[in-house]
Design brief:
Number of helices: 11
Distance between the termini: 13 Å
Strand content: 5-15%
Strand order of the largest sheet: 3-2-4-1-5-6-7-8
Bound molecules: guanosine-5'-diphosphate
Helix content: 40-55%
Length: about 280
């Protein structure tokens, strides 16, 4: 079984049918769909590039469509709404994003789900030692009312950025999508008509189900961009290539660990290199 496709291709400079099948097997094992896998190897034998370079180039070209850097709106204050299904890593990623942005922003975080005390405790424990404010003065149980209060607190403590962690919602649950839209409207109302940026957190091990989540969340909420988590350990990073085929939603960051600093801006070239070297496994 090939672990590092780049070094394999260095050793097999002439690509015959067997070698091509080996490459396709590597790609499929890494969660690239069969169709995309065949597309990626199509021109590697008759190219002026070396096969490894052509394959890398094909991957980078495919990812071009989702390569749009994360940029916060230039306003006095703004909000980011973190959404996604249960267990994908939303709360962990909210903390990572806050740490990533804290050098240039004053941040307040709110866990907009009164029933998820554990997630709130997790944020407090991780972030308060780093000087990031976590909203805790809950007077309400309704997520939109919590966000309203948190926005006011953020303004009064001079935070320019409110990051809103939400409950894990299945995209099939219409009520929960309606609740997220209500949070969006609340932010719009309280912030001079500016909508929050919506970031969908996706579990990088979720395969085709993850693609469905992007489609459904986009339909309900207009997602601005994605953060793909868990691209370490047993992850199958080829999933990212399938997302770029199925949807044009930008990928802002990828996460490759549980630590607070394991968040990296998405870079197609680095991704292609690491992916082909099997470094996500
Ligand atoms: P939520 O339910 O979406 O808020 O998910 P959590 O943030 O509570 O994360 C669920 C689990 O996934 C926790 O055990 C996290 O430590 C773990 N997790 C989150 N992000 C990553 C990642 O990038 N890599 C790995 N290996 N684990 C992660």
């Amino acid at each position: 079984m090939i672990k590092n496709l780049l070094s394999y291709l260095e050793r097999h400079r002439s690509i015959d049918v067997d070698t091509t099948e080996e490459i396709i097997r590597f790609l499929i094992r890494s969660d690239v769909g069969p169709k995309t896998s065949r597309l990626l190897v199509k021109n590697i034998t008759n190219s002026s590039y070396k096969p490894a370079d052509q394959l890398k180039k094909n991957i980078i070209d495919l990812l071009h469509v989702v390569n749009s850097p994360f940029i916060l709106p230039e306003r006095e204050s703004c909000a980011i709404l973190m959404v996604g299904a249960n267990g994908v890593g939303k709360t962990t990623t909210t903390a990572k994003l806050a740490v990533y942005l804290k050098k240039t922003n004053q941040i307040t975080i709110v866990g907009a789900d009164a029933f998820r005390a554990a997630a709130r405790e997790q944020l407090i424990k991780l972030l308060e030692p780093l000087g990031i404010n976590v909203f805790t003065s809950f007077k309400h149980k309704d997520p939109s009312a919590i966000v309203y209060e948190a926005y006011k607190e953020a303004n009064s403590n001079n935070s320019n950025l409110l990051i809103i962690d939400t409950a894990g919602r299945l995209h099939t649950n219409i009520n929960l999508m309606a609740e997220l839209n209500k949070i969006k409207s609340t932010v719009k109302k309280i912030s001079n008509d500016h909508l929050p940026m919506v970031i969908l957190v996706l579990d990088g091990t979720s395969g085709r189900n993850g693609i469905k989540q992007v489609v459904e969340f986009n339909k309900a909420l207009d997602v601005d961009g994605l953060i793909v988590t868990k691209l370490d350990g047993s992850a199958k990073a080829g999933f990212i290539l399938e997302i770029s085929q199925a949807t044009k939603t930008p990928i802002f960051f990828i996460c490759d660990g549980e630590g607070l600093n394991d968040l990296r801006p998405f870079n197609p070239e680095n991704f292609a290199e690491n992916f082909l070297q099997g470094q996500f496994e």
